[in-house]
Design brief:
Layout lengths: L4 E7 L10 H15 L6 E8 L1 H12 L7 E5 L1 E2 L2 E4 L6 E9 H11 L3 H16 L8 H17 L14
Helix pairs in contact: 1-4, 1-5, 3-4, 4-5
């Protein structure tokens, strides 16, 4: 049986209509990361599109951070071992939650397209689901950024400028 990638996308916000092609873009990003990382076997990923209010609630509940954010990742595995869907045999990588409002603000802030921002957030989160972590900075941060940019360039969404800002 051929390996399959299932990306379940749910729109859990009413702030705005999802742009045409957004679901396909998210699926392409998930697939590209798995190909680049040479992931073996079938996989399932859940992606929820939410508003700032909902992501704020989740950020507070799960990370004890009392503000909205752009994206949250909820891995279902560790060190390459994942829960398996007994019906399909697919490895369940985890959940990605993207704030559509935050994505719009950041696209404007960083001077790139909304598609590029959604793609970046999806790729970034996928790497988290696969065990990458940039929180400590240093080499892990650099490694993760390089992987993100490699996938985005491959998808034709390379960076046109800096998208880093300093947060207090």
């Amino acid at each position: 049986m051929k390996d399959r990638i299932k990306v379940i996308i749910s729109n859990e916000q009413t702030v705005e209509k999802l742009p045409r092609g957004l679901r396909m873009l998210i699926r392409r990003c998930c697939n590209a990361v798995l190909v680049n990382e040479q992931f073996k076997g079938s996989a399932e990923i859940s992606v929820a599109i939410v508003d700032d209010e909902r992501i704020h609630e989740l950020n507070k509940q799960y990370r004890n951070v009392d503000r909205s954010t752009d994206v949250l990742s909820f891995p279902l595995g560790a060190e390459g071992v994942y829960d398996v869907n007994n019906d399909t045999g697919a490895q369940m990588l985890g959940d990605i939650v993207i704030s559509i409002e935050h994505a719009h603000k950041q696209a404007e802030l960083y001077g790139h397209s909304f598609d590029r921002e959604i793609a970046f957030l999806t790729v970034h989160s996928m790497l988290h689901l696969l065990g990458y972590d940039h929180e400590a900075g240093g080499l892990e941060l650099v490694r993760m950024r390089e992987k993100e940019e490699a996938v985005l360039t491959q998808l034709g969404l390379e960076r046109s400028g800096s998208y880093y800002t300093v947060e207090e």
